Amino acid sequence: MAQLHSRDGISTVEPPLSQAVGYVVVVAIGIIVAFVMMLVTKILKKTTGEDNKKTEMFMTANRTVRTGLTASAVISSWLWSTALLGSSFVGYSYGVAGPFWFAAGCSPMIVFFALLGISCKRKIPEAHTSLEVVRIRYGRVAHIVFMVLCLINNIFACANMLLGAAAVITAVSGMHIIASTFLLPVGVTIYTFVGGIKATFLTDYFHTAIILIIACYFSVKAFSTDQVGSIENLFELVQAAAQRHPVAGNQGGTYLTMTSKSAILFAILHTCSNFGLVIMDTSYFIKAFSASPSSVVPGYTIGGIAYFAIPWALGTVMSSVALGLENQPNFPTFPRRMTSSEVSNGLVLPYAAVTIAGKGGAAASLLITFMACTSTLSAQVIAVSSILSFDVYREYFKKSATDRELIRSSHFGVVFFAAFSAGFSTMLHYVGIDLGWTLYMLGVVTCPGIFPMVFTILWRRHSKAAAILSPILGLATGLAVWLGTASHFGGEVSVATTGEVLPCVYGTVASCFSPIFYSIVITFIKPQDYDWAEFKKEKLSLEKLESDLTTAHHRERQSPDDPNTIEDGGTRSASFDAQELKRWGRIAALWSVATFLGHWVIWPLPMYGSHYVFEKKFFVAWVVVAVIWLWGTMLIAIFAPLLDGGIQQIVQVYRGLTGKDIPASAISTEEKQGTKTSPFSPSESSVNDVARGKESGSEAI
User: Fold this and answer.
1) What residues does each domain of the chain span?
2) Where is this region: Disordered (predicted)?
3) pTM across the whole model
């Protein structure tokens, strides 16, 4: 890990909670949540006909998830334990610039993904994973290359989460770090095994609600303690901290400035890394495929912009509390400062929580770390299981795989990856690698496939040779630059030197941008002129999907007089769908550019270039805006899914359980199981019944 501080040593802090509390949270709560989700899955099958024994439901939730739940799931997908712990860690290291750049390195790529998601919806609506897109366009060699890159992305992302979460759980409860590493994925494995992507959406919602409520609690509690009292007093405390230990590379050595050389380097590193983590993470594509077409762009845009407040507000408040109060007797490490090991293991947040809220703060930090880790682990697990079932088993072992066989292979993938990720994280721990090291070096291995994947979806002339060679050459370039600069600046290649900021920045930038050069050169030699219509010739879905997958969400708003409604009153015309999706694509492109310019250029860079040091009033405004934004994010994440169909489905479930209403979708599912008849029978009335059932059922969320 980079030696960001002059301090060193290991933690000798007595855990504020007992081991029993750690095991209760990690094991008992994890299993309780798992069984609740299993019960919910069973109830939804009974009352709405959502059958997780069907592959389309297990992997893509029948592609009908609405905007509210999509936005909540997007927030949750990026709500890693790393975001909670890492934003406080960089705030402690660099000052107010750290949490801001952490947030700015997350939101733009989430919003940009809306463009990729809607492009996939338009060009290949039956896909389940991004790798299917690669295989159809370029063939099996490119498919294997990207499969390896995606799996590397998932493995290191899980290791990053588990290392940070296990270190925090151990620090606050005394639970053995290896026990926490292996037990964290247990509950995730159970509910993902049973419920598939829908269970992931629902648990994402539940976990995100709890995390944001606790984060908002910390944002208030920090200023209600006698030690702080107000934002103005916190400003004075942070100023005093800079006098005691000024920050090298910051304007005037203060924590209260955006002019921070280390922070801007971290911003470049973090932004590139996160583009890799999003674009090469198949779970983002799965959630985009799961959303109804009209929900992809607003869901990802709202989720991305709302997410910005979490690392910004929480990281700013908690790192400022740690800096301002670490010389107080009730700070866990008093009378010394936190060691390099403690900082890079992500202990800034829990130590600050203990300082302002005692054992309650320790329990709260333990709970949100557990929730954040398991929530994002579920997305990673379902992503890897989808790769193993659709891209390995179905493609290379059994082309004619049935629903049952694909679900069985998905179950194997869930269990295998959960166990593998725990074992891999344990190996990293024993060779001295922690949260900080993985946070910095992630981009070196996750970035090579970014632009080749983007070109695959958006550039018709991108050639097969470029798709195969450019990510391989990019990865080799990134690794060479990373290790070479580590040797140059540190004198050797070791865990310590490869975790320094500069080698990771150089390596990540090389991995990210060199494939652009390789792709353009190779494509220029022999360009491809790909016909996007080829995508739709491939049969990917195992079931007949409701009309064209691009129309389901609009049906409820049509009238018989609509010129785009066909005779059976069911769907709009294909030309209208194409125009509608192109319009969403333009909106997504506009929001992508606006979000990047706003979060990365217009807002922070003038403050960096002007060498501005925060005054008291400006700091107060900075914190107030961040906290208000955080509370707004909480309201969006909790209430948007309920208002956008959630209450409707709760009512439907209640009516189904009390026997007042049995949805047509549930009846059709039972009929399929009992009589083997298709829900898409020639009878017009049965078709319309099924459509109505699906509108009130799975489309309700």
Assistant:
1) 19-700
2) 551-572, 665-701
3) 0.81
